[in-house]
Structure formats: C-alpha cells, structure tokens
Amino acid sequence: MTRVARRRVSTGVLAAGVLLVAVVLAGVVSFYADSDPDGLTKVSQDQGFAQTETEHATSDGPFAGYSADFVGDDRLSGGLAGVVGVVVVLALAGGLAFVVRRRGRADETVDSA
Amino acid sequence: MHVPDGFLDAPTSVGTGVVAVAAVAVALRGARRELDDRTAPLAGLVAAFVFAVQMLNFPVASGTSGHLMGGALAAVLVGPYTAVLCTSTVFIVQALLFADGGITALGTNIVLMGLTTTLVGWAVFRALQTVLPKRLSSVAPAAGVAAFVSVPVAALLFVALYAIGGTADLSLSTLATAMVGVHVLIGIGEGVITALAVASIVAVRPDLVYGARRVMAVRELEVRTTGAAA
C-alpha cells in the first residue's frame, strides 16, 4: 500500500488535470482533427444514401458544426465551440451525478454491481 | 457514427427514442449505487473528456475518419449505469448545441453509441477480468479490448436498425460489410484511446476507477493477510 500512497494524487488535482486535458483537446487539438467524413458518413456516400439526410433543426444555431458563427477566425471559432461544449457537458453531467449520488462513501458496495 | 435526421424512418426513430428514455431512467436509478461523494466528481469530468475526445477525428482509411464513442471508457471509469448518463449527456449536447447527430435521431444515437458501447464494453471487460490476473495492470488492457469490440457491434446494430426502418432500399449485406469493415478500424482507435485514458487514471488514483474496485478489494485483503502473518 505504501507504493500506492506515495503516488496518490488528490481528487482535486486529478479533477483539474482531467479538465485541463479536456479543454486543451477540445479547444486546441480539435483544430488538427481529420476533417474527412466519419465511418457512417463515408459508407452513406459510397452506398448512395447520404442524400436521405434531412435538414438539421438546429443547424443555424450559434455553435452548429462546432464553430462559433460570431467569430471569424477558424481556429478561435472551433476552439471556442469546443471549450463551450466541455463546460456545458461538465455542468450537466456533473450536476446530474451530484443529484443522484449517495451521500457518504460507497466503499462497501464492491459486489453490488 | 452520429446518425443524422432522415436515415431512419419515424417509427424506428420513435422506437429507439423510447429505448433511450427507458435506458436513461434505469441508469438514473442504477447510478445511485455507483456514485458517492468521492466518485461523483469524476462522472462529470468523464463526460466532458468523452465530449472533447469525440471532436478528435482520426484517419482510419483513405478519405475516412473515426472518433471515440466512449461507452466502454466511461463504464470502466465510473460504472456502466453512470456511463449511460455520461454518454447520453454528450449526445444531447452535441445534437442540440452543435447540430451533430439528428434531433429525431437522438434516441438512435444514444442507443447505438451510448447504450450499446457501454453494455458491450462492460460485458467484455467483466468477462476479461475473470480470466486475466487480478492485478491493476490488467485493467487498462481489458478496457482497451472491450472498447475495441464495442464499436463494430454498434455498427452492426445500426445495420439492424436500417433493416427495420432505413429510408433507402439497400443491400443489407453490403451495408453490413461496409459498416463493420470501417468500424473495426475505428474500434482500434477506440481501444487505444480507452486503454491509455484508463491506464492514466489507474496510475494515479486506482481507488477511483470503478472497473478496478474488485482488484483493489483483493489487493487490500492480500496486504492484510501478509501483515497478519508477519
């Protein structure tokens, strides 16, 4: 146990680290993502049913297509959209987790799953 | 693999919507067993991380890309019920805020990329845990293999849904071959990303990794036994 204890990082530091990684990935690295169509889109093009896609109801939203339409620069626009997404997802999923969680620790529930 | 509006007909989309709502309802009850004051903060972060990594399309073949789905990753880190909540949150935000994945296809996307990858990923992970050594070093590789398997299964389920309610007349065997073929490649990326992410958390805080709980419990017992014998 001492080996684990020495490497143990506090939950706060770990949380900050994961959040930083997520923000950098969504805000900066996403600019360099492959812009080719993804697996399903490519298959739909190859097999000739891509045209059955219909207009998206929120396609004129401010962040549609992962770009902030009020920002001119592509890099900033995509990065801002990514960071906004991270924050919104964190708030919704994090809030949900806090609402449904059990108060206290669940260490004794190892075999309950 | 975000399904847009129009690929599946209305009855099929309503059907997947009902399944998605039921899955989220069950997950809300089950997640209570997985989340406590100590582990709850990780759930929101896992969802945010899955969202971020889903933006990072990687090349898989000429002119084709893929990205993480995340169900297996989330299941191993925070538990399968919580994983359904995390991935569903991601797909809801993507559809409403970023127009990624259709609104009418939201249930389909939650079922395919959230529910399916979580259930398949968790089942494969647990099966591997029974045959692999009960060590922390087994957790990340098992998660990676589970994630790899979950992606082509999700692709096959899309083909099944298309057989039920696809809006174009296609050869289903050709569709299945194409979908599974490309998603085996995407699954490799899913497996690598999942193994790396799980290994990172296991390295610093194995006690917070849901999929490592049994290993941690076994190890604590061993430590106590050794201590008593000495």
Explain what the structure shows.
The complex is a heterodimer of chains A (113) and B (230). Chain A has 4 helices and no strands. By secondary structure, chain A is an all-alpha fold. In chain A, helix 2 runs antiparallel to helix 4. Chain B has a two-stranded antiparallel sheet. Chain B has 8 helices and 2 strands, in the order H-H-E-E-H-H-H-H-H-H. In chain B, strand 1 and strand 2 form a beta hairpin. The interface between A and B is large, with 73 and 84 residues.
Which range does the strand content of chain A fall in?
A: under 5%
Mean pLDDT of chain B: 95
Q: Largest interface by residue count?
A: A-B, 73 and 84 residues
Rg from alpha-carbon coordinates of chain B: 18 Å
Helix content of chain B: over 70%
Gist of the model:
Chain A has helices spanning 2-7, 11-27, 39-46, 74-100. Chain A is mainly alpha-helical and 113 residues long.
Characteristics:
heterodimer; A: mainly alpha; 0% strand; extended; B: 230 residues; mainly alpha; 2 strands
Per-chain topology:
The complex is a heterodimer of chains A (113) and B (230).
Chain A: H1 2-7, H2 11-27, H3 39-46, H4 74-100
Chain B: H1 10-34, H2 40-54, E1 58-61, E2 64-66, H3 71-78, H4 80-98, H5 106-131, H6 139-165, H7 172-204, H8 213-229
Antiparallel strand pairs in B: 1-2
Helix pairs in contact in B: 1-4, 1-5, 2-3, 2-4, 3-4, 3-5, 3-6, 3-7, 4-5, 5-6, 6-7
